[in-house]
Structure formats: C-alpha cells, structure tokens
Amino acid sequence: MATGRDVRSFGNLARDGHTDAIAFLYASGAWSPDSRQYVMVVTRAGDSELAILDAMRGTLLQRIRVPGVQSISAVSWSPDGRQLAIAGTNNGQGDLFLFDLAERRTQQLTNDAFTELHPAWAPNGRYIAVATDRHEETDLATLAYGRLRLALVDPVGGRMRALPDLGAGARMINPQWSGDSRSLYFIGDVDGVADVFRLDLARGAFDQLTQVRTGIAGITARSPALTVSPATNAVVVTVFDRDGYQMVALDRSRVESYQRLADDEVALTAPIMQSGGGILPPHTESPVPIVDAMLADGVSGLPGPTAGAATIARYRPRFGLEGLGLPAAGVAAGSSGAAVGGGLSVFWGDLLGRRRLGIAAQAQGRVQDVGGQVLYVNAVSRWNVFASLGRTPLPAAFNSVAPIRVRDASGNLREATVVEQGIARTLVHEGTVGAQYPFSRTRRVEFAVTGTRLTQDFDVTQQVVDNVTGRVLDRRRSTGSAGDAIQYAQSSAAFVGDNAVFGPASPLDGWRYRAEVQQTVGRTQFTGVTVDGRWYQPLWRGALAFRAMHTGRYGRDDGQALLAPMFVGTGTLVRGYAAESLAERECGRSAFGPCPSFDGLLGSRMAVANVEYRLPINRLGVGGLAMELAPFLDAGMAWRGGDALSLRPRALANADAVRRPVLSHGISARLNLGALIVEMFHARPVHRSGGGVFGLNLAPGW
Fold first, then answer.
1. Confidence (pTM)
2. Nearest CA-CA partner of 603 in 685, 520, 661, 674
3. How many independent structural domains does the chain possess?
C-alpha cells in the first residue's frame, strides 16, 4: 500500500478451466489471521464455492463446497483461523453460518426470513458484526423490508444484539473492526450519499470520517467498499470519482487521533476526507430520495383489508414484442429482371423470457434471392429446446469470354466474341430441431437434427459481339436447373465452453471452445468435424488473443459439387485474401477463366490459426470511443480429400497441385457503434504480389 503497486493478482483463478466466475458484487474475500492465505467466493458448475489461495504465490490451495449452503455472498475468517463466518442462502433464505475448516462441518447461526450480510469477525473472537434488516422497520407479513443496520452475533449460540442506529433513514453496511475490537468502521448514508463512519461500541457515539460527493461505493449499493487492517488500523475505501473507481487510504494519524464530541452533543463530527467528485453543473440535490422511498414502500399498491382474499391464477404465457431490427428495403427493375434488397427481423417473447420467437428476412438481389428464417426457443426447463426453418440463397456470378467465327448475311466468316454472363444460385432449405443443456454458466452440450435440401439453378445471358464493329450479332437468355436436388438429414452433437470477458469490441480475457461432430444420412453421406479453441490472456493494457480452428467434411460425398465449399480467405479467417481483391495477373491466366490462385483457397476442409494483440484505446487515456487496435498475424489452409499437403508456403501466382498455407499480417481497428461493431483492417498478404489490402468486417472480434 505504500507504493500503490500491484503485488499479486488472483484473477487467473477465473481462467483455470475449473472456475466459472469470481463473486465480487457482494463479497471482497477475507484474509487469514496470519495474512498468508486469502479466501474468496467463486462459482463452479453453477454453485457457490470457497477458494483458498496462497497469498504470496497466488496459487490455489483448496476448493470448498460448503455443505448446507446453496449460495454464498460473503465470508470472514475467525481470529484463530479454524472457522469461517459465511453469509449465504438456502432455498432463497439468507442466513449466517459457521464452517469448521478442519472438520468440514457447517453450523447454522440464524434460520429465519431476515437477512444477514457482510459478516466481520472481531479480532478478539467474541462477536461477528453483520448488516441486517432484523429490526422494527421490517414487516414480513407485507414483505416490507427495512434498511440494513448493524448488529453483533455471538458465534456460540447465535444470539444477536442490535447496535445503535445512525438515524436519518441511513443504511449501515460493510462493518469492519478496529484492531482492539472496541470500534466498528462501516459505510452509512445519512444524507443519501455513502460515507465512512466509526462507532465506539462502549459509548455508542459515531464519528464521520469522510464526506465524498460521489460516495464511498462499490459496483452496487450493497457491494463492500471498505476494509480495515486489524494490525495497523489502516483504512482503505473505494471511491467513484469522474470515470472510474479509485482505492483511497485514509490518513491513519488523523483517524487514530480523532477528537470525538461529548456524549450529549450531536454524535456526527466533521469528516477528515472530503471530495467534490466530478459533478456536472447545474447540480441540485433533491430533499426527498424518491426512488429509495418507493423501493422501501412495501404497502402502496396492495389491496386493502376489505378487498377480500387474493385470487390465484395460473400463469399463462403470452407473446409480446421484444425487439425489432431496423427495416430497410429497395426495389429495382431493368432488362435483366427485377431486383429487391433489404432486411427485417422481429422478436417476440413471454413475460418471463422462457419462450421466444424470431423471424428474419433478407433480400440481396432478385426475387429468387430472398431468404429468411423462423426460430422458436423454449427455455422453460434446464433443457433449452429450439426449432428453426430457413431458406438461404447462395448466388454466385460468373462470366466467360471465348472467340468464335460467324457468317454474316453475305456468307462471309467474321471474327466475333461470345460473352456469357450469368448467376448460379444454390438454394438451401433447412429445418432443425435441437436442444441445449447447460452444465454451468460456462459449459453446455448441444444436440440437433437437421434436414437439408439443396438445389441449384442458373440464369445465363449469351451475346455474340462483332470484333470489328462491336455490334451485337445475337443475344439469347437461358434458365434452368443444374442437376438433381440433394437431400440429406444430419445429426450433430457439440460440447461448448465460454467464459470470455468482452472488451469494447472483442474478448479480452478467458477462453472459448467448441467441439462438434455432424453425421449425415441419406443419398449424401459425410461426417462434419469442428474443433475451435480460443484463449485470451491479459497483457499490459490489452490482451493477447489466440485461435486455432479446424473444420471439415469427411467421407464418401465430402466433395459433392452442390455442397458449398469452404473459403479460407474470408475477412474473419485469413485477412487479405478476399475473392474480390484478387487481380487478373494473380490468376496466372485470363481472369474470365479458372483462377488457380483463388481455387487454392477453397476446399472441403480447412485449418486456421490467428494471433492478435488487442488494445482498447481508452486504456491509453483516449476517451469518447469504444474502440480497440489489434495488430494481427493470420494463417490458414484449405484442401479437399486426397489433395497433397505441404506446410511450406508458396506464392499464389505460382500455385501447383499441392495445397499450402497462406499467411498475412497487419493491423485492425474495431469500433463499437452500439448495435453494430465495425472492423477496418489493413492486411499484408504474404503470398500475394503487390501491396497491402484494406478490408471491412461487420462483426465483433473472434
């Protein structure tokens, strides 16, 4: 505390693969009496646990699933180091418990509908201080809960004694003991703003130690924001000032030499710490805390005593509008036919969020290119069941040029060119039924059965152009289907994990993974495999991000022509190799014919590896934008079954029959616009000729 330097971080506990999250909203952990160990509340597989760590090494010593306590909010160590005082809940009821570390035995000190929070064990071991609503203001009959006040609990027997009230409707939370066990420090809000006070237990007198305009505050109104060292009486608080939370140590000499007022005087003294905070003008204080008054009012709006017995009715879910995507539409017509563009999405849900229905439609060209999806999710039980129907058009433009000789009206041969332009359209019709089962907040399994029907048609315009005059000698248009439809059913199973912590536009901490197997049955048979792992490691002011992914189709029909090929050059995989960025000279022949450079990026299987360093610009002192910069290195390779593979890269212009990886490096800037994350990047594709490539993605970072 003397230097303000971070000595040890326990944050890696949330990334060890066995912990879902660290509980920090209502608990700050507790030190052992010898300060060699630290206990904190964590969640694992959806349940509360205690994690005890070596304070010097930061290593995990043991995990404890406390028997008889379903959820833990706060913990305090006994002075002899043998027991823990725990504020927790059982069946929705908050109580105080003792846990014997040696015998692994739980003792319940309170057992009623009142609440006990923020336990603090006195250094002399005689009492446990708590914040509780066990007083005359609480009426359990009307569920009107009073403000939190302080009380002392005897750890032997659980007898509770109320402490003096600060008055003025103030909450009293987060008690902390002085080293001699004669005083309690706590947070109170006499004037509606939380400050630090000290209570002399023998005299019942209060001292106000701070007066901070923004308040001594944690993340929530009940979050702990005060700690006191029993050995030195050093007082440290958390203050929200301007744009963030700051830890502030109070002047120890002034705290210890504080001059109290006489017993018959007002028991609040002038504070030793004052701060105006970052209040924007004009500022006027409301004499009545309206929101607090309404939250504390448990009677208004209830039926009167003459209204008779309440009618109990079964809950019947009804769908109501939850969200509407910004609609957009456009229509055009010409010699090539009609075209439409735009999209719309609508979402409905019931009151409890257990049932949801979504409809989305997207148009991207002609009327035949209109697609859409209907999705229904039922989350009434732990098994989340879903069903969807969708139609997805995959249009692809093509053209070709070929020389030809034609006879004119006089019977003479003339040099001409045949120009073909058209669209090959693959239509994907899918219906899916599936379910998800979460093991915890970070891990789940998914199962699905999908029926798929693939068809392909074409629309080609052919023109014969005289090479001398440029006159169109002939023009024809043909449409039709390309082969028989492909139909198959597919079952899939996946194991998914995700505890990533997002920054402005992408994850900055934690990990994500997905392992999935798909198997088709029917006339088309193949096995789909996906393995995707991502790891995010905080470093300096940003984070290193790693991704390794493989996805592919294996089996008899893995290379079926109607199955959409995998393209490794998309902007979310290996940047700098997008199809539209390839120049004619890179194809090694006419751009209107086959392009080996492009074909080398397609396949039925692919592997991708990425590394980024993500730096939010607000951590550099640049405010106003939710933006991050990310230097990156991408690598990937696509191939088909039976292809020869080599890990030795080669320029695309010199592509051969061997499939090789491609690499790129560059820098990306992601900007969070609220409803949309935009990524702008400049990539230097190592295995292409020429300079760098600019690109744009409308998606968060992987």
1. 0.73
2. 661
3. 3
